[in-house]
Design brief:
There is one protein chain. About 10% of the residues lie in helices and about 25% in strands. With about 190 residues, it is α+β, with helices and mostly antiparallel strands. It has a single domain, classed as Immunoglobulin-like, CATH 2.60.40.1260. The radius of gyration is 17 Å and the shape is globular. The termini are far apart.
Length: about 190
């Protein structure tokens, strides 16, 4: 009986790291297109930094509490965005962080940074880091030359490959914050 208890306890202690492994950085827009086409946060204004975004996706079958997790584009945690209390990614769903503005019309949780994400996403070979509330790295994506005027997206959403959005999108969109870039076939 004691052995079963110990095994059960060890399994429960391992669960947070198993759950965290289910959260991936699924899409990053570092260089919004010009004009109305670049209004990624749908607030009616195209802005260089406020329309930049980082999207997270929960590939697992359980909700993940990301309260206190940090997301940013540099290795200095002082510039990272910190998710507030009660921030949760539902299974098979998304959370989006915009640089700023007043995001409108999203069906998933959306957060805004202080006008730009980290030091402002440059799209020139920088890394994007997701750090949990204990300081452990959950996810990092790196890309030498981010696509211009469209997002870099994980394809498929739970896969490993990062490609320019128009390459992966079935509707040839430039970005798709908060929802899949693939339209299922009937």
């Amino acid at each position: 009986m004691a052995r079963i208890f110990v095994i059960a306890l060890l399994t429960l202690l391992a669960l947070p790291s198993l759950v965290e492994a289910n959260v991936v950085i699924s899409e990053v827009l570092a260089d919004p297109p010009s004009g109305a086409a670049g209004d990624a946060n749908q607030d009616g204004e195209r802005h260089t930094y406020q329309d930049e975004f980082i999207e997270l996706y929960n590939t697992g079958s359980a909700p993940v509490d990301i309260s206190g997790w940090r997301l940013g584009d540099s290795t200095s945690l002082e510039n990272f965005f910190e998710f507030p209390a009660n921030a949760v990614i539902e299974p098979g769903s998304y959370v989006v962080l915009f640089g700023g503005g007043t995001p409108t019309g999203f069906s998933v949780p959306v957060y805004t940074d202080d006008g730009k994400i980290g030091n402002g996403l440059t799209g020139k070979g920088e890394d994007v880091h997701l750090i949990d509330d204990t300081g452990d790295t959950v996810a990092v994506i790196s890309h030498d030359d981010w696509p211009s005027k469209q997002s870099l997206v994980r394809h498929p959403p739970d896969g490993d490959e990062l490609v320019p959005h128009k390459t992966a999108s079935t509707v040839k969109a430039l970005f798709s914050p908060g929802h899949t870039h693939i339209i299922p076939k009937p």
